[in-house]
Amino acid sequence: MAIVICNEVGGIGIGHAARVLRAGGDALDAVERGIWPVESDPRIHSVGRGGWPNLLGQVELDACIMEGAHLRSGAVGAVRGYLHPITLARRVMERTPHVLLVGEGAERLAAECGLERAENLTREGAAFWEHWRASAIPGDEARAWPPDALAPLAWRAADPVHTHGTTVFLARDGRGHMAAGVSTSGWALKYPGRLGDSPIVGAGCYVDDRYGAAACIGQGELTIRAGTARSVVLYLKLGLSLSDACREAVRDLEHLAADRLSFVMIHALDASGEHHALCWGDHESPRYWVCSGEQGPASLVNAGHVR
Ligand code: ASP
After folding, report:
1. What is the pTM of this model?
2. Residue-range definition of the domain harbouring residue 123
3. Best residue for ligand 1 mutational test, from 197, 267, 279 (most atoms within 8 Å of Cβ)
4. CATH at 241
5. Does residue 212 contact residue 191 with C-beta atoms inside 8 Å?
6. Residues 59-80: pLDDT tens digits?
């Protein structure tokens, strides 16, 4: 059964992903195509162009793509000036012997591959940053901008409930191959160079055709520490049902509850095409999109919720 699922902000891309599957295309192409419109849309402030900037007012993007037949993956972190970090992640996987490139090296590969450049800091993003600086930084500090010590600001700026977001896509194609893709601008007002879970294989996403796939949104620092996406797939391998595998991964996160600043939401698809999502922590209404790769429109489905 061909199927694609994505988180709520991915809704504008899921039709593109489903069309790839319906045309007999593969899961990797489906997740990449699904993510493109999300990265391009300047109204989505947590992914691609229009993403909220870091503490220095720069938009730094992270992405990862992974395929489940041979566990090949590519990822990029803290990339500036390119429109589609998901495609750059795919180039890392297909054109280099590496898995993860960051910063200038990643941008160099993007230039080598002729990927589309973009000014990802929109006028709205710049205004958001200016407003934050004007309201959060006392006059003396603002005059000496940037300050020598940015780290205290990273704590003061953190508003993860309102400034988090990522897009995650999981797909299974008609041949039974699976893929995962994640793209994000990460936390708004993060410390420059900060990578969340999105570009970390096994934290932000993981896929193995034999068992299934998982991808996370929310407080990436926690899912990096718990290895959440990999854990879900491992729990499937050990024989847990899809919902029990997600619940077990949330139990692992509960052990880190003292450091929780925000929610984590796990999206999962098993090798038979069953889907599930589970949110841990405060969230108004955790939902995700599901679309059959055969026919019919996408539907928005309620996720499970554990507080
Ligand atoms: N997981 C992303 C990160 O930590 C952000 C998010 O999904 O809200 O960068």
Report:
1. 0.97
2. 3-306
3. 197
4. 3.60.20.30
5. no
6. 999 999 999 999 999 999 999 9
